[in-house]
Amino acid sequence: MDFLLNGQAHGDVAGTLLKNNFDVGVLRPFIGVDGHSYVTINQNGAPKVVRLAHNAATLRKDEWILLDQAIVRAARPRLKAVADIRGAGLQFVIPNGMSKTVLDTETESDINEATVSMDGLRESTGDRPVFNLTHLPLPIIHKDFSFSARQIAVSRNGGSPLDTSTAEKAGRRVAEMAEQMLLGVGDISSYAFGGGTIQGFTNFSSRNTKSLTAPTASGWTAATLVTQVLDMRKKAQDDYHFGPYMLYNSKDWDVYFDADYSTAKGDNTLRDRLLKIGGISGIQTLDYLTGWAIILVQMSPDVVRIVVGMEITTVQWESQGGMKQNFKVMAIMVPQLRADYNGNCGIVHGS
Asked: Which domains are seen in the chain, by residue range?
């Protein structure tokens, strides 16, 4: 067993991490073309390939590439909302996030209005913002898998690549958990540690809420939803958040979003109509939203960002005398939803 207790490492894996300032690159050894073992670690903020003093590597470099490609390929489709937010530049990267467990930030209040006078001699109201310290846990999302030494030997001797199906499933599970944490759904809808709690779009304590009429209800029309989405936008505007917005919906809405909105067949769909609402820049269906959920989110860093302490990464160590090669797919990819000091928020959860 490998663990850390009171700053002391217990076990080979924990000891290796502690000696290298938790740089997970030390747990990704590869065999170079010259037959020697190497690792790639960060040194003064830049990657550096370092030769190991002993032959500790099991996988060749191309085998690591094969594994990494399979894991990232499986993870990418599951990161829809996370990818949207990061693609909009709404992320905060923590170098060497493994060495930190909590991110401390502050919420800030606004100040009073400016004063208007003809000569500028009138004294304006003195004011300063009020700050409140908040804590965001930085847990590791991880999933394990393994190969036996014999499986690796058979792969090399037979000239066929390693079966990466299990690695793909592990990568997919890590990505699914990151997406669910952002939405506030699933087995871990919130996560508390160090005086802070991770919350998602559907359970963020400062979010605005809106009751939606189910499309299966009597008298519902597409125009009903348009009116209610306009109400959702007004709730955001009343909290001083004016867009641009993303509109996220559960998959149950898709059949209604893509149906004809007007009486003229093929003229436009409900989705087209919603995209014409000022400020809404896109609509995305999310697999893990259930029921008739719709979420309006202002895409700005004061509302939402992804805190990245570690990209999806695979590490390796051996056990049982080297007969078993253990792998762990890990990521530190945590949603940070934000409201100002007064609780004003640019997230509206319709359900």
From this structure: 1-57 (no CATH), 202-303+341-350 (3.30.2320.10)
**Cα–Cα distance, 98 to 146 (Å, whole number):** 22
Q: What is the pLDDT along the chain (351 residues), one digit of tens a residue?
A: 344 444 444 446 666 666 666 677 667 777 777 777 776 777 666 777 777 766 567 777 777 788 788 888 888 778 899 999 999 999 999 887 888 888 887 766 666 777 777 776 666 666 666 666 788 899 999 998 888 888 777 776 766 666 778 888 888 899 999 999 999 998 877 888 888 899 999 999 999 999 999 999 999 999 999 999 999 999 999 999 998 999 999 999 999 999 988 766 556 899 999 999 999 999 999 999 999 999 999 999 999 999 999 888 888 887 887 788 888 888 999 999 998 878 899 999 999
Q: Residues near 287 by Cβ (< 8 Å), separated by ≥ 6?
A: 78, 80, 179, 251
Give the number of other CB atoms < 10 A from CB of residue 134. 16
Helix (H) or strand (E) holding 181: helix 165-183
**Cα separation, 183 vs 47, whole angstroms:** 34
How buried is residue 246: exposed, middle or buried, by Cβ count under 10 Å (0-12/13-18/19+)? buried
User: Is 193 within 8 Å of 137 (Cβ atoms)?
Assistant: yes
By the 8 A CB rule, do 161 and 266 touch?
no
> What's 264-329 look like in SS3?
CCCCCEHHHHHHCCCCEEEEEEECCCCCCCEEEEECCCCCEEEEEEEEEEEEEEEEHHHCEEEEEE
Nearest to 72 by CA among 187, 164, 171, 198: 171
Q: Decide: 144 and 326 in contact? Cβ < 8 Å.
A: yes
Please count the residues of the chain: 351
